[in-house]
Design brief:
Blueprint: H1 3-6, H2 8-29, H3 36-54, H4 57-63, H5 71-101, H6 112-185, H7 187-208, E1 213-214, H8 215-233, E2 237-243, E3 251-252, H9 258-266, E4 276-285, E5 288-296, H10 309-324, E6 329-335, E7 338-346
Parallel strand pairs: 2-4
Antiparallel strand pairs: 1-3, 4-5, 5-7, 6-7
Length: 350
């Protein structure tokens, strides 16, 4: 189907252009005798009818793509189609003028007049073909851009799914190992941890079905996760949360902070005899939101990266990059016996 028939607004603009051309032609042809009305009665309907004839050049252009058609064949085919178009315009003009004037051979279409009408039809059909080639090229370009964007979205979605597929089992395995360690020493605590773990996964699965959740909900998931870990670590594990202004309403990827908190426990709190406090601070800065997670580390070993610590950090870094491009980041630093991970995200709200 011609694209103008599937988009009525395009057809309207197309016909409006032809109508304007018809009015200009009527005015120019009526200058010698000043009979504008009689001239318009012939020119306007003929031009509008010919505008539909010219739409056939779309199908000619579609059958002769510029990229694959030899130049000679392309030129001959388009010229032949334009000649036919010129002949059709002459026939339409002859018929319309004959109907209006009541003469089978109107005097203004004899000799030079007939040639002018024929050449006009030829040129108009040729110009319409050029216009259709430009339209086809534009549609191809838009289609390629759309396919490129769709491929990018699919690739990003696949990357995110792969990252989530890595993070979720990583957390589950660590939690199951903790439960396994408690079963032998404290079955009641192991039972409590199992129930909390089920609650956490129920909430995380619900959150994971969405592309983003409010930061306040993300921190609530972190609190549940830390309740699981507190079963094993007791009072050695403390939490402090400071969310400035309305940063809690900012949207973040679900479970983007959980791997960072997990690292803070496994490679920070768990390595210290007295444990320590995990501090989460969130603040909006212009169009960004920054969430920092700090935890104490063993100052004797803080200069080297603990084995396995990079997994969660790299997973979060890759996920932030896949979701935000260059707008987001994950930065880490060690100052004395304090490790800090800062997630920067574009500030968005519902």
């Amino acid at each position: 189907m011609h694209p103008f028939f599937s988009r009525p607004e395009r057809l309207f603009v197309y016909l409006a252009g032809w109508l304007g051309l018809a009015l200009l032609a009527s005015f120019a042809l009526s200058v010698p005798d000043g009979n504008l009305l009689d001239t318009a009665f012939v020119v306007v309907p003929v031009t509008l009818l010919y505008s539909f004839v010219s739409l056939s050049s779309w199908y000619v252009c579609r059958s002769l793509p510029l990229q694959n058609t030899p130049p000679v064949r392309l030129g001959v085919s388009i010229l032949a189609s334009s000649v036919i178009g010129g002949a059709l315009l002459y026939g339409l003009t002859l018929g319309m003028s004959a109907i209006i004037s009541g003469s089978s051979t109107p005097r203004d279409l004899s000799g030079g007049g007939a040639l002018i009408v024929f050449l006009t039809g030829l040129v108009l059909y040729l110009l319409t073909a050029v216009f259709h080639y430009l339209l086809i090229t534009f549609e191809i370009s838009r289609g390629a851009e759309r396919r490129s964007l769709e491929a990018e979205v699919l690739a990003r979605s696949s990357e995110l799914k792969a990252l989530r597929a890595q993070i979720d089992p990583h957390f589950l395995f660590n939690s199951l190992n903790s439960i396994s360690a408690l079963i032998a020493s404290d079955q009641e605590r192991a039972r409590s941890m199992t129930i909390l773990l089920a609650d956490f996964f129920r909430a995380s699965v619900s959150a994971g079905r969405r592309q983003s959740i409010p930061l306040a909900e993300e921190i609530s998931l972190i609190r549940t996760y830390l309740e699981i870990e507190r079963v094993r670590h007791g009072d050695r594990l403390q939490l402090s949360v400071t969310v400035e202004d309305d940063a809690g309403l900012s949207l973040v990827p679900p479970l983007v902070l959980q791997p960072l908190v997990e690292n803070a426990i496994k490679h920070g709190i768990a390595t210290l005899i007295g444990g320590g406090e995990i501090r989460i601070t969130a603040a909006g800065e212009g169009g960004k939101i920054r969430v920092s997670i700090t935890n104490p580390v063993d100052s004797a070993s803080s200069s080297r990266k603990p084995e396995g610590a990079s997994f969660g950090l790299q997973a979060v870094r890759d996920r932030v990059r896949a979701l935000t491009g260059t707008e987001g980041s994950l930065d880490t630093s060690v100052s004395g016996d304090v490790f800090t991970a800062t997630v920067t995200l574009p500030r968005r709200t519902q």
